[in-house]
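CO-FOLDING WORKSHEET

Operator: S.A.
Ligand of interest: adenosine-5'-triphosphate
Run index: 247
Mode: holo prediction, single chain
Checklist:
[x] sequence pasted
[x] SMILES validated
[ ] output reviewed
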Amino acid sequence: MPSAELDDLTIHVDTGRWSETVAEGVSLAVPGGRITALLGESGCGKSMVAAALTGSLPASATSTGQVRINGTAVQDRRQWRQLRGGTVGLLPQDGVTAFAADASVGAQLADLQRTYKAWSVEDACAAARYPIENFELYPKQHSAGQIQRAALAAALLPAPEVLIADEPTASLDMDTGYDVWVTLRAYADAGAAVLVITHDAPLLVETRVAEDLVFLREGRVVASGSRADMRAHADPYVQGFFRPFGE
Ligand SMILES: Nc1ncnc2c1ncn2[C@@H]1O[C@H](COP(=O)(O)OP(=O)(O)OP(=O)(O)O)[C@@H](O)[C@H]1O
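OUTPUT RECEIVED:
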């Protein structure tokens, strides 16, 4: 079974103008066949954790601790280059960053199909609910929700064993967002290790789509475990995610 793990990850960012520790001692596991949801208030470090899990931390960041993909520690850029795509895939928070600016989305999706020979463009677009009428458009000619779905199609095309999805439903209406969750669920059910960063707590609670939850606050994991354990957790920060829905 595929897996991704962080062990005692600390990330420090130093831009020259300011410096900050954005993740501290973060340990978490993303097992195959399950969806792990990473929750937390805005700015608490969720995207940085996603970047660490996909070898895409910004140049201003330094990190300590260990990232393991399928049980093997990843230590350098060369290893990340080999893992990206077919083994580890990232759906970035801003979908437009998944694409080059100067080619149509359709052409770039077709390239991914040719390179990886895994999913077909048609199947990936259907799963991501990306409207293929937009194929000829350049990335910036899409709406936020359209490019987010195109980026999901791009992330699925190589059929990564580990999929890290950063707010995949943030720009979507309820129905389309639900369909995307169904796709992610099916992808995990087929064996992939899936981590989803989300603010979509209502849907998560109602559909019970993710079995494992990790709560991040100010760069630290404050609680993690099964959905049932998290519902019973005493921490008010954790309970805040459930309370509005009568749970
Ligand atoms: N590319 C970057 N370079 C430097 N610092 C960054 C970068 N991206 C994020 N940060 C900083 O890292 C911290 C954590 O940001 P991050 O994007 O991980 O938060 P988040 O939990 O994903 O927030 P949101 O829910 O709003 O997307 C913030 O203080 C932010 O300013």
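REVIEW:
Residues 1-84+199-247 form a domain with the Rossmann fold fold (CATH 3.40.50.300).
Strands lie at 3-14, 19-31, 34-40, 61-69, 72-73, 88-91, 162-166, 193-197, 212-217, 220-226.
[x] output reviewed
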